[in-house]
Amino acid sequence: MNRAEKQELVAAMHERFGSATALVVTRQSGLTVAESMDLRRKVRAAGASYRVTKNRLVKLALEGTPFEALSPLFTGPTAIAVSDDPVAAAKVCVEFAKKNEKLTIVGGALAGQVLDTDGVKALASLPSLDELRGKLIGLVNAPATKVAGVVQAPAGQLARVFAAYGAKDEAA
């Protein structure tokens, strides 16, 4: 990789870090290519990105972003997961780390607030943005459904009373 390519990579990462909501730093030692590809596939499916880069280049890209305080975490074989969803990257990385001991969570950040390993695990236990939206819509729809049922009930009872009178008159 020549100097121009490195500068281009740093600029692209800097732009991505500037727009991201969450960043998770992992240490991977001994992951096979198949395991790494599986992790990347899962992270991509969750709407995040996962990449292994040189620590020096990542530190340069972090300068001037909300994640600048994470620079000391980049030592040894590290990789980063970046997402716009506050929970997606953390959730996938923590789930993968539970099943594969070759991947460890080093730390992370959420909207500029630095998180340690336990903080990332706590973040991963939260429901995702889509799940929260679904719950919120369910809560909003529940009262409307109940109101419709209450408003409809008297009309239904009235119709049953009329039908009973109609059947009684026909029988007589």
UniProtKB/TrEMBL annotation:
Residue intervals passing through the bilayer: none
Signal peptide location: none
GO cellular component, as recorded: ribosome
Cited CDD domains: Ribosomal_L10 (cd05797)
Tree of life domain: Bacteria
InterPro entries: Ribosomal_uL10 (IPR001790), Ribosomal_uL10-like_sf (IPR043141), Ribosomal_uL10_bac (IPR022973), Ribosomal_uL10_bac_type (IPR047865), Ribosomal_uL10_CS_bac (IPR002363)
Entry keywords, A to Z: Ribonucleoprotein, Ribosomal protein, RNA-binding, rRNA-binding
NCBIfam families assigned to the protein according to its UniProt record, in alphabetical order: PRK00099.1-1
Family in the record: Belongs to the universal ribosomal protein uL10 family.
Function: Forms part of the ribosomal stalk, playing a central role in the interaction of the ribosome with GTP-bound translation factors.
Subunit structure: Part of the ribosomal stalk of the 50S ribosomal subunit. The N-terminus interacts with L11 and the large rRNA to form the base of the stalk. The C-terminus forms an elongated spine to which L12 dimers bind in a sequential fashion forming a multimeric L10(L12)X complex.
Protein name in UniProt: Large ribosomal subunit protein uL10
Species: Aquibaculum arenosum
Gene: rplJ
